[in-house]
């Protein structure tokens, strides 16, 4: 968990796609070494935020039209994507997007393009990725497109880690995965963070994200509508009702009864459901 030093400082960021305004004066901070999450429904602007930070928005036909992004005190504005990677920020895009016809090892090698560090640093990064995801070592010569969905997500995360980032931008890592696989990915995010990498996690699965993060932001139609410590947001009625699938009149305290059972099993919060898979 971070102290007061900020790794990432996004200030009043406005961005869009032609006439579509996807982000309006969004400000987000990630302290050094922290996990911070951005929650929000479909189309809220979560992916756009990550693309604006990694400067990949132009590849999607979008542009930043206002505000600043600073990393480690230095502005990222105007940098090419590979310079952002070199500055220590790597993104795992939504939908994994591994190179399906390339081997697993070549996908990982692609992650070192633009990265800082010499051969020894890249070899160390590969060892770290193989320790986190042994299956990527076992399947090194296999075509990436033949991996399962969960394994492809591991590959996408592994590829981003090959650049030894100080900040990992993670776009919906649990999307389309079975609960057990999502929980495994969550464990890995925790481990990556414990090794010193800060994480900005975009998720629709609020239960999972709030368990991982120390701080959370809620994005609605391009604006930050709520932010605070993740534990506080997880306890708030508004978040519980809208993002954790709990109706406050049913479970005013949200606490299980003394036997540890939720009081209304049929309406158990998503948070409890996720914990059961672990
Ligand atoms: N490449 C694009 N071209 C035009 N409009 C886009 C593009 N990508 C996203 N948008 C629009 O920008 C807005 C924000 O989309 P964005 O993908 O950032 O939201 P999101 O919160 O990541 O949603 P989801 O969880 O569904 O991916 C939406 O109105 C969306 O339709």
TrEMBL record:
One of its GO terms (molecular function) is ATP binding. Residues 8-246 form the ABC transporter domain. The keyword Protease does not apply. InterPro entries: AAA+_ATPase (IPR003593), ABC_transporter-like_ATP-bd (IPR003439), ABC_transporter-like_CS (IPR017871), BCAA_Transport_ATP-bd_LivF (IPR052156), P-loop_NTPase (IPR027417). It holds the Pfam family ABC_tran. The keyword ATP-binding applies. Keywords: Amino-acid transport, ATP-binding, Nucleotide-binding, Transport. Residues 244-278 are annotated as: Disordered. Belongs to the ABC transporter superfamily. PANTHER family: HIGH-AFFINITY BRANCHED-CHAIN AMINO ACID TRANSPORT ATP-BINDING PROTEIN LIVF (PTHR43820). This is ABC transporter ATP-binding protein. It comes from Streptomyces roseoviridis.
């Amino acid at each position: 968990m971070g102290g007061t030093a900020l790794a990432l400082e996004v200030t009043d960021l406005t961005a869009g796609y032609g006439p579509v305004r996807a982000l309006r004066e969004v400000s987000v901070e990630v302290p050094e070494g922290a996990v911070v999450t951005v929650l929000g429904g479909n189309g809220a602007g979560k992916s756009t935020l990550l693309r604006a930070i990694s400067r990949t928005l132009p590849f999607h036909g979008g542009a930043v039209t206002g505000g600043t992004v600073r990393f480690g005190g230095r502005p990222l504005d105007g940098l090419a994507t590979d310079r952002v990677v070199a500055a220590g920020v790597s993104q795992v895009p939504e939908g994994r997007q591994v190179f399906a016809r390339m081997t697993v090892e070549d996908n990982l090698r692609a992650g070192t393009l633009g990265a800082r560090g010499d051969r020894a640093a890249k070899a160390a990064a590969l060892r770290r990725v193989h320790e986190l995801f042994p299956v990527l070592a076992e399947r090194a010569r296999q075509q990436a497109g033949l991996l399962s969905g969960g394994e492809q997500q591991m590959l996408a995360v592994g590829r981003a880690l090959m650049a030894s980032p100080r900040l990992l931008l993670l776009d919906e890592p649990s999307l389309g995965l079975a609960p057990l696989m999502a929980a495994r990915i969550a464990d890995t995010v925790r481990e990556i963070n414990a090794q010193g990498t800060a994480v900005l996690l975009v998720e629709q699965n609020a239960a999972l994200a709030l368990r991982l993060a120390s701080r959370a932001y809620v994005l609605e139609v391009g604006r930050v509508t709520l932010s605070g410590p993740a534990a506080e947001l997880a306890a708030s009625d508004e978040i519980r009702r809208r993002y954790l699938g709990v109706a406050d009149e049913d479970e005013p305290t949200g606490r299980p009864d003394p036997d540890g059972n939720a009081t209304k099993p049929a309406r158990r919060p998503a948070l409890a459901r996720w914990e059961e898979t672990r």
